[in-house]
């Protein structure tokens, strides 16, 4: 709101509740107990009416959040996150209601539901604590919004765009150019620090068997459907047959958490239990036990190479065995479970459990990397 031309000041705070001495902690506590009508987390906007009208201010309000979500905004759930306009006089109330009607029509035309915004007289405004003021200036990589639903407030004459809203809308991806069976789409936004972090930590060396595409559009690929609107970036959506099957909202610099989410969507329950429950498949049951073809054994989630076929040997133990991994592909961890002391082997890229390593292997290493087939994917060498 502070970036709207003509807005002079914004103050974060609380309004619309029954508590006379709200604070962030008290608002959260009141939400849990439900004994009082809770305050909404609001922004007090001071503007110059010679530069911007109240309708233009409210156009910015409608466009920069999703007013159809009820007691929620994005990942934040509770009545303190409700959409609300608190007016100071009848004239402001009339403008608020008129803009709501206009924006409702635009939202309905775009397929959204009813606006749930509370419009009520302001009884008191309580400024929030200092760390909640100018939050995104203090935390430039903080929670990244998409700028609302992506539906414009009707009438260019009523809009006063902030610099962030002036960039042209990005066209959606073309559904027919993507993988119909299974496709990941990363919905990003310009200037989103966590989007850049996801690009650097995850997408830059993508080798997963699931194809991925990034987009600056907040709309699904053409001809495809989202289960619900997006509200934060980055949001990673898994589409199957052109329909959303799962989503991972936000990224905070923890690639292992993202890979675990993808593993939940793509691995069988048995493989997921091995990967994250440190399970073990029955001996002589793995599909890759007797595989002798030349190629590379890779992480089934990230696609990162783990072992080459020329390091595989027949150990007679009932599990695929290798005398050495690809350099840097695995990590070793002390394992004292089940009354034993062993060395656990994990994939360095995703962190999933692969098996254990023992000192009874053949030359030249003398090691036996005893690995579960269920957490390996085999990629055969291509003929020359």
Give a structural overview.
It is a single chain. The chain has helices spanning 24-33, 54-63, 90-109, 135-138, 193-201, 255-266, 269-277, and strands spanning 7-15, 40-47, 72-73, 76-77, 84-87, 118-121, 125-127, 183-187, 212-215, 235-240, 243-249, 295-298, 305-308, 312-313, 321-322, 330-335, 342-347, 353-358, 368-371, 377-380. Helix content is 19%, strand content 24%. With 384 residues, the protein is of the alpha+beta class. Strand 8 (183-187), helix 5 and strand 9 form a beta-alpha-beta unit. Helix 2 (54-63) packs parallel to helix 3 (90-109). It has 3 domains: 7-133, Peptide Methionine Sulfoxide Reductase, Chain A (2-Layer Sandwich), CATH 3.30.1060; 175-266, Glutaredoxin (3-Layer(aba) Sandwich); 295-380, Peptide methionine sulfoxide reductase (Metal Binding Protein, Guanine Nucleotide Exchange Factor, Chain A), CATH 2.170.150.
**Number of structural domains:** 3
Give the H and E element order. EHEHEEEHEEHEHEEEHHEEEEEEEEE
The CATH class of the largest domain turns out to be Alpha Beta
Largest sheet: 6 strands, antiparallel
The strands making up the biggest β-sheet line up spatially as 14-15-19-18-17-16
CATH architectural type of the largest domain: 2-Layer Sandwich
Give start-end ranges of low-pLDDT stretches: 156-167
In terms of DSSP E residues, the strand content is: 15-25%
Separation of the first and last Cα atoms = 60 Å
Summed over residues and divided by their number, the pLDDT gives a mean of 91
Please estimate the helix content. 10-25%
Which structural category do the helix and sheet elements fall into? alpha+beta
Total E-strand runs? 20
The CATH topology of the largest domain corresponds to Peptide Methionine Sulfoxide Reductase, Chain A
Q: Work out the radius of gyration.
A: 27 Å
What is the helix tally? Answer: 7
Per CATH, the superfamily of the largest domain is Peptide methionine sulphoxide reductase MsrA
């Amino acid at each position: 709101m502070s970036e709207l031309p003509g807005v002079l000041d914004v103050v974060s705070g609380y309004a619309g509740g029954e508590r006379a001495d709200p604070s962030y902690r008290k608002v959260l506590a009141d939400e849990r107990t439900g004994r009082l009508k809770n305050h909404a987390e609001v922004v007090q906007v001071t503007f110059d009416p010679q530069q911007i009208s109240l309708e233009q201010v409210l156009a910015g309000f409608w466009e920069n959040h999703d007013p159809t979500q009820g007691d929620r905004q994005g990942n934040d759930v509770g009545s303190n996150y409700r959409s609300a306009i608190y007016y100071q006089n009848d004239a402001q109330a009339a403008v608020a209601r008129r803009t709501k009607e206009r924006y409702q029509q635009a939202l309905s035309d775009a397929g959204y539901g009813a606006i749930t915004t509370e419009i009520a007289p302001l009884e008191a405004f309580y400024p929030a604590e200092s760390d909640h003021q100018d939050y995104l200036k203090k935390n430039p990589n903080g929670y990244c919004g998409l700028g609302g639903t992506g539906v414009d407030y009707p009438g260019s004459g009523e809009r006063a765009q902030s610099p962030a809203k002036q960039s042209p809308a990005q066209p959606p991806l073309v559904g027919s150019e993507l993988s119909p069976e299974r496709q990941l789409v990363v919905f990003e936004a310009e200037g989103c620090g966590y989007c850049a972090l996801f690009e650097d930590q995850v997408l830059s060396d993508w080798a997963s068997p699931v194809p991925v595409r990034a987009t600056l559009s907040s709309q699904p690929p053409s001809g495809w459907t989202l289960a619900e609107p997006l509200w934060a970036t980055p949001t990673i959506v898994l589409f199957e047959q052109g329909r959303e099957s799962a989503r991972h909202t936000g990224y905070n610099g923890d690639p292992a958490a993202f890979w675990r989410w993808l593993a939940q969507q793509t691995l069988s329950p048995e493989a997921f239990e091995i990967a994250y429950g440190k399970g073990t498949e029955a001996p002589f049951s793995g599909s890759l036990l007797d595989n002798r073809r030349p190629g590379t054994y890779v992480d089934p989630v990230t696609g990162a190479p783990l072992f080459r076929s020329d390091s595989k040997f027949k150990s007679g133990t009932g599990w695929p065995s290798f005398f050495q991994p690809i350099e840097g592909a695995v990590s070793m961890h002390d394992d004292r479970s089940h009354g034993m002391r062993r060395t656990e082997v994990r994939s360095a890229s995703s962190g999933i459990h692969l098996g254990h390593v023992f000192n009874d292997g053949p030359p030249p290493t003398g090691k036996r990397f005893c690995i579960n087939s269920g957490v390996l994917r085999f990629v055969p060498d291509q003929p020359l």
